[in-house]
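Weekly structure sync, notes
Attendees: PL (lead), two postdocs, one rotation student
Agenda item 3: pending single-chain targets
PL asked that the sequence for the first pending target be pasted directly into the notes so everyone works from the same version. It is reproduced below exactly as submitted, 400 residues in total.
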Amino acid sequence: MKLDALGKHAKFIRGITFKPNQKCKPFSDGSIVCMRTKNVQTELDETDLIAVPADLVKNHEKMLRGGDTLVSSANSWNLVGKCCHVPSLTYKATAGGFISILRSTNGALDSKYLYHWFSSTTIQRTLRSFGNQTTNISNLDHNRALKLRIPLPPLPEQRRIAAILDEADGLRTRRRASLAELDTLLQSTFLQMFGDPVTNPMGWERCNFGSLIVDGPQNGLYKPANLYGQGTRILRIDGFYDGSVTDLSTLKRVTLNDAERKSYGLKESDIIINRVNSRQYLGKSAIIPPLDEPVVFESNMMRLRADANRLNAVFVVKFLQTKFVKNQILRSAKDAVNQSSINQTDVKGFEILLPPLALQREFAAIVESVEAQKARMRAHLAELDTLFAALQAAAFQGEL
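Predicted structure, written out during the meeting:
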């Protein structure tokens, strides 16, 4: 199969920059939607849009077009290069400063074929290896990316390959949608049982979180990269999502002494809270599951233990994920270049509601049942991801 440098047939278009005070209401007069890294998910996430004055877009090329690929070009190392396909939009949009638009520049390269190639496991891994690392952030090396060689069969063959990959990817999309429906179910169940925390219609007692914590919050430990590779498992911010630790078997290992293992060791039902991250993910939390060997936690998170006589840990983690607490986190956040942080005092000061413990436990049982369903769905999705990656590899090796 013919190989050509990506730059012969496509280009990167950098997003616009703007000041925080220039943001305006989406779809208001004289505005244009501006996509951010938050919008670059497996699919384009249009649920949380911002806008800026349209006159900030000086170059018409920076307007999004159906068929473009949006690329996260400044992010944490594991997310740089992450991309999504842009469908035909019903509104005008552009890209913000931390993302780039990857666009086919001639009729020799199909835009959907380009997206599937760029999003493939091999290319994503290669892009991350190109990243120009700065403090807590990696930047996509556009020049090196454009030198990558893309297989370039005839255009009808590109479209055939893209159609096959679209169909296969649809199975993964439907499975993700089912998982999202279960998340919505849990959110609805929470509101039905406890009411909206903002208005507190059921009159639950309001408490400072600190009065309900029996141990912590404690920051995790930092170890240099040369001590990673063997030893004790360590939980990092990429190891938990949506209230749960994703897979203990995939955790990295770090060399520690006995005192460090004891001081930073995690226990079942401990609660961890992310204390340093982008504002989008700041304060994400999870409950520690049963452990089959020692696990410690990294410095960009805190560990705490709640009073089991007054709080159920499952309820706490779900409560910490509500908009009510998220808004408190954002008000407390200390912003620095490309990241924000909260401290132990901030966490102790969170206002939370205190329903009866029996009701919390009833909710926890529902969560356990739903999480078991989600675990089965995630396992199936992982199988689909593996099969899809194999299909991608075959496609771009001329074997599909």
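Discussion points:
- The chain has nine helices and 26 strands.
- The CA atoms of residues 176 and 381 lie 8 Å apart.
Action: rotation student to compare against the earlier draft before next sync.
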